[in-house]
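Collaborator request, handled under Task 6.
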Amino acid sequence: MFKNMLEELLIHKPDDPIQYMINHLKQNNDDAPRICVLGPPASGKTTVAMWLCKHLDAIRISQETLLFKEILALTREAKMYKERKQKIPNALWANLIQERLSNVDCIKQGWILEGFPENQEQAWMLQSSGIIPRHVVVLYAPDTVLIERNSGKRLDPFTEEVYHTTFDWPSDPLIQQRLVKPEDLSEQEMSKKLLEYHRNFPGVFQIYQNVLKSINADQPSMDVLSQVLTYVQTRHRSAAPFTPRILFCGPPGSGKSLQAALIAQKYSVVNICCGQLLKEAVADKTKLGELIKPYIDNGYPVPDNLVMKILAERLNALDCMTNGWVLHGFPRDIEQGEQLQKSHIIPNRVFFFNLPYESIMERLSQRRIDPTTGERYHMTFRPAPAPEIQVRLRQNPRDKEENIEKRVETYYRNVKELEDFYEDAIYVNADQDPHVVFEFIESCIIKPLPCKKLKSL
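Structure tokens returned to the collaborator:
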């Protein structure tokens, strides 16, 4: 930590170094909360999420805040589904959440995601977007208790605090007068929702089991909140047999981001996407962020020396040193690999993803997005379900064949020297099911560490 602060002082040269270091410690967001609060209807998710936000100074994100309190690009589309009393697609929810969590306040202060994900598909989508919670709290109570709670629920429209006519009635007469009965479910609808929750929860549990804690919500609220707070303030140790320092290299479309998310989720290592790291530096408006902003805004490559300063600072942070990391998006050539080594950033597992040119083209050039819902499709693997959807699909300019060719050409022009540099690298056949790829990578991670000699520069 002190090494990082010294580097910051050398880069920024503030007039008041002491005050600068104090501000730097306050603004460091490595420990910013990333929490999901899940549970069946009437289990107390809102109460817990709001209390955590007040206690941790984090941002609360829920269905209500996304639909009625945010001005996001996809809010209007989501509201239209709601007005038509149709189910909002999982992809649209995932895109709304991703857009909101990329805002500066969530990056700096952290976030509490209330009621998301609701099912395994949403969890996969969030994970594939790099949205991985550090803690998942699951509230539970008997269905009979939840049905009784639902009938007595009352809402304060000013503060959004939730009360109950039997279990949690406010003592303030002014609050009592303004409480309203929310448009809640009938007992029959509540039973149906509970059945749906019980059907979906095992899939969510499977994904988050390493960072998940179930807490009995059928007890006094302060006991629940105390247990929740104790859990979310714990640090997870890596589940890996050593401190992993994993590097993924591969052509565009080979699945590096997805595999990094899966490894990070299972082994509690830190997922470092170089491109995302640069965007966060810009969002934080740091001195380095201001230096790289013109490059990112104009689509130019960020100079290696600036990338290395940001990357080295992040990889030397406490969570990366303690839990390990998986890096993708850097290095892209031999010079960058040598710079990593000079900075004493030495991966102990290097994977090169191999994918035939035809498969790269097939994966990327046929990707489409529905501008109305945000749903992603693939012309071959996941075609649009209806003609009216098909006609409105759009293609990202990056996925046009000529742009893919340039990116692939650049990769293969540099990869041979990089492969020679990382002579003990492991080669992955990325042209198969993602779960098969993951199992192979995992088997290589849990093997004993290889004895290797570092190349002298």
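The cover message to the collaborator said: "Residues 25-29, 449-457 have pLDDT under 50 and may be disordered. The longest strand covers residues 135-140. Please let us know whether this matches your experimental observations."
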